[in-house]
Design goal:
306 residues, mainly alpha, two-stranded antiparallel sheet, 11 helices, 4% strand
Length: 306
């Protein structure tokens, strides 16, 4: 690239140059690394009068009740913090605090905790100033006990929401029911398989016992009853009654009897109804004798006499 070409070099046509021409222009100092886009420097203006005029155009002169704007200083510091700050008054200059309206304010705005505390105190002072103004205007600041907030959504929209929730609950219930049925089906199938295996095992055991009996290896036919020998001998394994319980049982048998027909045993008979005897002091009948049956030898002698 010649000197005339360097003089006629236009940075706006840099995209039309080849790589070699760009390298030569960069070596000559005509272009610099980066985006070589010409830009015009804007003139910065601080038009205060124009800003104030625009502010007057869109500013609304509303009542205080519509804006609730409160401009106040931060509330006084708590006594503990105030005592902590006043300890440093012996130092000639308080570097980290400044006094404003009789209260010490922190200059360390990089401390997040102190900055949040400053916001908190600012809000406290705004409340102390704003609440009396609201009460003087007759505006309630507390919600009544029987207050119910109105729904933002309409009743029709909430009805759709309820239907959607009910449909979801129905789907979940059906899914749980299907899972339970599948589980019960698996359990039932497993129980059925176990029952079949048990029956096959019993059949195999029965056939083995029959073969042993046919071959003469055993003479016990208890396997035909379908009960184990242990169950057949259950009567032998019962505990014996104690002597005291035996005596009690014998006394009851002697008093009430056992076996035979019990119904109608105390009814009157022909002999008892026709008998009129003396009654003892205890109310028992006396003089009533029953016909006793003769012994066998006497009955034989009586027959032989006839």
């Amino acid at each position: 690239m010649n000197e005339n070409e360097f003089n006629e070099f236009d940075i706006s046509n840099v995209n039309d140059l080849s790589d070699e021409e760009l390298q030569e222009a960069f070596a000559a100092g005509l272009i610099k690394p980066g985006l070589n886009i010409p830009c015009e420097e804007k003139e910065l203006k601080n038009n205060i009068s124009g800003l104030k005029s625009k502010l007057k155009e869109f500013k609304l002169n509303l009542n205080w009740i519509e804006t609730l704007d409160v401009v106040s200083t931060p509330a006084p510091m708590p006594p503990e913090a105030y005592d902590e700050v006043t300890k440093d008054q012996k130092i000639p200059k308080l570097k980290n605090y400044y006094k404003f309206n009789g209260a010490f304010q922190s200059k360390d705005f990089t401390n997040d905790f102190k900055r949040e505390m400053l916001f908190h105190r600012q809000a406290q002072s705004a409340i102390l100033e704003g609440l009396p103004r609201l009460k003087s205007s007759g505006i309630l600041t507390k919600r009544p006990d029987d207050y119910f907030a109105e729904m933002v959504k309409s009743d029709q929209h909430m009805h759709k929401v309820r239907l959607n929730l009910q449909s979801r609950q129905t789907v979940i219930a059906q899914s749980e029911r299907a899972k339970e049925l599948r589980r019960l089906k698996k359990v039932g199938k497993k129980a059925q398989i176990e029952t079949k295996l048990k029956q096959a095992e019993e059949k195999r055991k029965l056939m083995n016992d029959v073969k042993k009996y046919r071959k003469g290896l055993t003479k016990d036919l208890s396997f035909l009853d379908g009960k184990d020998n242990n169950k057949s001998n259950s009567a032998k394994n019962k505990t014996k009654l104690s002597a005291k319980s035996k005596k009690k049982r014998a006394a009851k048998d002697e008093k009430f009897g056992f076996g035979g027909r019990k119904k109608g045993s105390k009814r009157n008979t022909k002999e008892s109804s026709a008998y009129i005897g003396k009654m003892s002091k205890k109310g028992k009948k006396t003089g009533f004798k029953t016909n006793k049956r003769l012994g066998k030898s006497k009955r034989i002698k009586k027959k032989s006499r006839k």
